[in-house]
Each structure stands twice: as structure tokens, then as C-alpha cells.
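Can't paste images in this forum, so I'm doing it all in text. The chain is below; anyone willing to post the predicted C-alpha cells underneath?
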Amino acid sequence: MKNRRNYYRILQVQPDAPAEVIRASYRTLMRELKQHPDLGGSTLEASILNQAYEVLGNPERRAQYDRALFAEYTRRPESQDKKPLTTVFCPFCRKPLAREPQAGDRCRACESVLQSKKPAEVRSEYQRSIPRMKREDSISYFSTWPGRAQKARMVDFSPRGMRFLCSERLVPRTTLKISSPFFDASGAVTNVQERAVEGKKLYAVGVVFIAISFQQPRGTFLSTSA
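Text version of the structure:
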């Protein structure tokens, strides 16, 4: 593979990240972290981000890149891999991590969930809850770090994403740290809709999970909601 850049590390996502997460991370880096040249960022860094997204944002090019990346890393001598290509970051607070996160790991700075279980394991353990289901519960979330936890009301849920009501108009692609009595998660805002609930103006926020950790994966939360 002639190009030795690791596009997953450049976009700060895991190799198994869904397309929504890759798109959200790319837009966050370009806009919120101001790496776009129009926002004061470096033209070179922006071109590298664009190059990474052009590949990972296209299913066919991503599959081809994955095959080349796998072949490159499986034949590389161990002595050539002493230093990481880039630093790995927490998806929420953006603090650098000491190593690639494993399932169940949390960021030492903000305590965000870093890596959830593999898709195959999720399908096996949560197969009854894969379709999005109605579930009303109180949750809290952080949209910045450090910051203050905001209260919200969960409306529906699946292991891949959720929707909640809050009084704050969140911006799409914002990364959140979410906590509830049943799970902790990090996720990216995908859409926001204004709603009137009991005479109050609230916002329905759709979130796709980046990583999630269930407190009781086979307990009351799933069985009573199926």
C-alpha cells in the first residue's frame, strides 16, 4: 500500500465504525475543531481529512482500503511498528489515549465509554432489542467537557442509537457523553426537531452511539422492554 496514512486514525474512529460515526467525526474535525481553512485551519491538514473521508465515506473505496490496510499490517515486521502513526483520542473530550481502546475501556479524563462490544456480540446478547423501542427514562448528558450535566428524557432506544427530549437545541454532529441507570454511552447527534410538549418548547434529539456499556445486559432493562 503506497499511502501509509491510517485514515481511521486521521478521522479518530475505530475500524468498525458505522458510516454515520465516520461522517460525524469528519464534520466535527472540520467545523467544531476548526481544521477547515475557512475557520483558520491548515490547508494541508484539511486536505488530509478530505482524503480520508473520500475513502472511508465511500463503501466500495472503504472496502478496498480495508483489504489493503489489512495486508499491509499483517506483513509488516514487528520492529517497524514501534511508534503509532497518530495519537488515538477520546471521541468525546478529545484527550489523547495511551493505546487503542478495548471493549469496556473508559477515558481517564472524562470517564466516557471508549469501545463497546463487537457487533456480533451485540446481536447475540441484545437480539430482542435491536429494533428501536419506546422507553421513557431520565438521562443526563454532557455536550462539552468540562461542563455541566444536562437533564433529558429518553423517548426510544436501540443498541445502535436513541432519541431523547431536552430543553437545549443541540447542534447536529455534536458528540455527547450520556448516562442513565441502565447504560453509559458516547454518541453523535444526527438530527434535532423542535416539539411542543405540554405547552413547553422542547427538542427531540436523535443520537447514533459511538460506544455503549450496559449496566445489566441481560437484566430488567431489556427483558421488560422487548
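The radius of gyration is 19 Å. The domain at 7-86 is CATH 1.10.287.110 (Helix Hairpins).
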